[in-house]
Fold:
Amino acid sequence: MSMSKYDRMLYILNLLRSRKNLNAASLAKECGVTERSIYRDILSLSEANVPIYYENGYKLATDNFLPPLNFTFEEYTALRLALESTPLNLTGKYGEILKNIRAKVESNLPDAVREQKKRAVKATSIAIDTSLQKQAERFFGLIEEAVQETACLELTYDSINSGVTSRVVEPYFVVFRGRAFYVVAYCRLRKDFRTFRIDQIKSLVKLGELFQPRPGITAESYFDGSWQVYSGEPVDVRVRFTGKSAKIIASRTHHPDEIVEKLKGGDIEYRVTVRGIEEIQRWILGFGDEAQVLAPDEIRWNLRKIAGFLGKTYPAGK
Structure:
């Protein structure tokens, strides 16, 4: 995503204030333009009475025209962590915007925060596991644009269940859940709402056709009751956890509507109503022999089939 000349000049000012010894080549690399463009930007800034001079790199003679932000060190730290860790950094569209914001924040810190920053130890680091692939970055901005304009999209999608299909959809919103970005849209092929994982979209075209949104479709209402992403008919699930798994279940919240009952001997009975069983079934499998499904029978039968397959694939003594 390329910056406008105005945004680029502001970005250059922020870089000059926050870093030292930046020449035309390094500025060009930061801004994603040629050195020739940087020379023109420096000239434009000088003509606008911004005091820039060159001494082992470009420098600002004064930074009085950029007032400091009234941050405490704790506020700055929280903002930096949020900007660095958000999955939006991987979307292409917001990656450049967030980069500009971070440069503006760093270049406009109060002197007291700058001094404290030099002495501070970086105590907290956040890494959000995100599956968005590089080839999907170019779709993110186009999908958001279609949502805002209520414009139909034609996409080729590689579904785990049905393979590669082409379809026209009416996009409602983009959401990050679990490890991935999804677009929720009404699918004209399936005649129902579907959740499309953005990194499984193979091609995407915004159509000139507009659609009339159906009322009441929001991220909150759409995913209400889901374990993570999938939806379906509500299912009451009951699981008895033992051993270390019981301690894990008791130590944290896994679903907003869960009920956790402590039993004698340290076991846990876990109850929750979810829409669809596929995701919660995979979650239960992760606890191995320390999870006993009490209901529904469908999950019990599925796990029995999986156990039979594992027993044949990995026979004893081999």
